[in-house]
Amino acid sequence: QLQASGGGLVQAGGSLRVSCAASGGTFSRYGMGWFRQAPGKEREFVAAITWRLGNSYYADSVKGRFTISRNNAKKTVFLQMNSLKPEDTAVYYCTSKYFGGGSSNPSDYDYWGQGTLVTVSS
User: Fold this and answer.
1) Hey, what's the torsion of the CAs at 70, 73, 74, 76, to 10 degrees?
2) Could you give phi then psi for residue 60, rounded to 5 degrees?
3) How far is CA 94 from the centre of its chain?
């Protein structure tokens, strides 16, 4: 089970960190990902981190602004979002894949959290 939190309202140019806490399973064996879905749009890849080496991957739209990280002891994955833009407004979902390798394809993931809303005002 995945529980996302930390969303909220922030002004453009600001920062926000969203978290996703996992329960059950051996967290360190899961690749983790963040996707987002804006109103009227399809779900899109944001970032992913692999299960073993912790390699990270980003969508071009967030590269250099967002950072994904994980704390295996706390069974939590984070998404630090800096220099936020109004177009970053979306519901952010965390997801996991057993022995996952950082895929950007949502179909490759097994479990999804409920999402947390991030709103960036201009």
Assistant:
1) 20
2) -60, -30
3) 5
What is the Cα–Cα distance from 68 to 24, expressed in whole angstroms?
A: 21
Q: Which two tokens stand for residue 4?
A: 């996302």
Are 120 and 12 spatial neighbours (Cβ–Cβ below 8 Å)? yes
Model pLDDT for residues 61-109, shown as the tens digit of each residue = 999 999 999 999 999 999 999 999 999 999 999 999 999 888 999 999 9
Backbone angles phi, psi at 54, to 5 degrees: 70, 30
8 A C-beta contact, residue 73 and residue 67: no
Q: Which of 7, 33, 46 is nearest to 110 (CA)?
A: 33
Q: Which burial class, exposed, middle or buried, applies to 47 when counting CB atoms under 10 A from its CB (0-12, 13-18, 19+)?
A: buried
**pLDDT tens digits, 14-31:** 999 999 999 988 999 999
